[in-house]
Amino acid sequence: FPNCRYPLDIGQLTMDVMKFDMYKYVPSGFNQQGFGFNTSARQGADRSSIGSVVLPIPGGIADQNKCDWGSSSATALDIAKANFAQSAIFEGLGEGVKTGINDIKKLFENKGDSTTAIGMAIAAQVSGVDGLLQRTTGNVFNPNMELLFKGPALRPFSFKFKLTPRSADESKEVIKIIRFFKQGMAPIRSQSNLFLKSPHTFRIAYLHRGADGQLHRGLNMFKEVALQGFGVNYTPNGNYATYSDGIPVAYEISMTFTELEPVFNDDYPTDNDASIGF
Questions:
Q1: Model confidence pTM above 0.85
Q2: Which sign, positive or negative, has the C-alpha torsion 208, 17, 22, 7?
Q3: From CA 259, how far away is CA 171, in angstroms rounded?
């Protein structure tokens, strides 16, 4: 794959840019040191870019970090059953029985609500009537609801660029850029045609002060991403128009990426908060 840039003279300008580097996909594989996957394999020093594109930073750039939290509930009966199971598993069946007996004693010490709740629960099971406690007393078991962490979330990113070539050479460069992303995101057939290999992946970076500049401290960083969608509008100005060689006078490309793995607390750089990080 080529190393492309738009506009052609972007290397001589002082504007901030985005750089897209393409890499051959590397599966994580199992981590032999523990129970997990070796995601650090993608960060190996022996990996090199197989092509790149440098573009001006568009408007509307944004990121949104998310974590999956959800509500969870456990009634007094659920807690008692869990307490019994935990004692039986970790301390032996005898201790589990003792724990269960103690919980039953505690319930019956409160002769008001506990006795009624237990009786209605048993009656509901015997009769098969759903919601018997609510129907007869108007009460429900306290669900002890709490918001609990369920897992991380993968971040999506969307970008849109308008490419207006100003010369024949720049037209060729724009075509290369479109081809770069379209072909790079396509799955790869194995020689036997029995398997499909994963498409290439990308690393994105905001660079401050030109293509050879430093990583931008005031904007977010990216983990390795997959290109999940790429669209081209060949008439962004609302009408079909081309140069004499048939190349459209403007293109609008839109792309949607998703990071291959979540962002974790220890991924952030140790730079004394001098950068935004991920």
A1: no
A2: negative
A3: 31
